[in-house]
Amino acid sequence: MYVCICNAFTERQVRTALDQGVRSPAGVFRARKCAPQCGKCVPTLRQMVDRHQAQSVDAELALPLAAE
Ligand code: FES
Fold first, then answer.
1. What are the strands, taking DSSP E only, across 1-68?
2. Nearest to 38 by CA among 62, 67, 3
3. For residue range 19-34, what is the model confidence (pLDDT) as tens digits?
4. What is the pTM of this model?
5. CATH of domain 2-67
C-alpha cells in the first residue's frame, strides 16, 4: 500500500528504510531521495517510526529473557 502518494513510496519501502536504521519521517524521505510535497503522509510515517522503535525496544528487552 502506498504511504506517500506524492513520492510514490510504499509501506514496504518505509519498513525497509526503518530496518536499515532510519529513525524519523525526515530520514525516510532522505532514504527515498525525495522531499515531502503535501505532507499528508507525515503523521503515518511518524506512527510507523514510533511503532518500529517500540518493537525494537521490546525485542531488546526480550533477548535477556530468551537467553536465560
Ligand atoms: S503524500 Fe507524502 S508528501 Fe504528499
1. 2-4, 9-10
2. 3
3. 999 999 999 999 999 9
4. 0.86
5. 1.10.10.1100
